[in-house]
Write a structure and sequence with these properties.
six-stranded parallel β-sheet; alpha/beta; 14 helices; 2-enoyl-CoA Hydratase, Chain A, domain 1; 433 residues; OB fold (Dihydrolipoamide Acetyltransferase, E2P)
Amino acid sequence: MRTLIFILLLLLSIPSPNSKPRIDVIKIDGAINPVVTDFIHDVVEQASKEKAECLIIELNTPGGLLKSTRMIVSDFLTSQVPIVIYVSPSGAQAASAGVFITLAANIAVMSPGTNIGAAHPVMITESNEPNKKDSTDIMMEKATNDAAAFIRSIAEKRHRNIEWAEKAVRQSVSLSETEALKEKIIDFVARDLNDLLVKLDGYEAETTSGLKTINTTDAVVNHIEMNLIQKILDVISDPNIAYILMMIGIYGLIFELSNPGSILPGIVGFISLVLAFYSLHTLPINYAGLGLIIFAVILFVAEVKVMSHGLLTAGGIISFLVGSLMLINTDISFEFVRLSLVVIITVTILTTLFFVFALGKGIAAQRRQPTTGSEGLVGEKGFTLSELKPNSIGQIMLHGEIWNAECSDEVDKGSKVEVVGIKELNLLVKKLD
């Protein structure tokens, strides 16, 4: 009986010869960052595990980080399923990092009206200092040589035009889809996804598991998208978004600390800081710039508490501006990953207004003499309803209310008095001339 059950299970586990092939499709529209890298890595692993016919990546990117690009290329070169890069739709581009990714695919395809090229590495930030400029030039030369060697190895591996690939890095040349086809950068041009599937049928691709013939006849197209968390992380990976989240986090926490019990600003501030730190973790951060921003916040808070005639505010503005400009560290990338100057200036102005006016008004309100309760009676003036004598209790009229009062001097009935203190439920008063 056990043998019969085992045979039945074995037969059920064998795929049916009539089962339709599956083709996975994903879309990458934007910069290449660590979130995109993780997403592609997971999809490649899933396609390999489930033995998909191929993985089609619809690509439209202006570039991205060098480290992320290398990881994606590594996944492509070690994939057990054919990788198809399809630069689409019309008007899309495979620029900078996109060139490396496209060349690393088993099959490279472009749709009409697209372009590929301009893969020269750039500095995320630049320096105007003469000595540092020399070191920057040396670093750029090394980075360019490294990128050129990297793209040559990819082109050689995939049997593509090595000479043009190197020009794309050293001279930032670009090609349209028809020119790319002539230069043997891509394999063919496809109008849309359906046209691509028709042309892929019977195409052979060399993978780590051997030569594979792609079968797209009656194939089931499986579209895969990022989950909600990945989409959120992809959005906040933009340095400008990360910068804004960091400032919202700082505002929220400081507002919560200056007004304990507000709760909402503290929650929003903490969540914003966590998201900002995640995003900044994926970017090359200059900790000197981050330190200057924190120092600026300290100066703004000090200005609220200490009278410096604007010196602390001026120092805070300068420190904040310089720190923001330095926040993204000098590094090599395939595109400019830097903070927008408009965003920096806007956030600097809002931060100055927040600390000087909003937070300042809040702290000033806390320091103001109480106007309600028993403490608010000190300094108020009224008149006696009875004669007041030392070591005795009389009555006064204050704010339309009758209070018991004590005075160290004799005060006639109907005289004006001022409250100087409170003793239990009795007011301590003094006579006014």
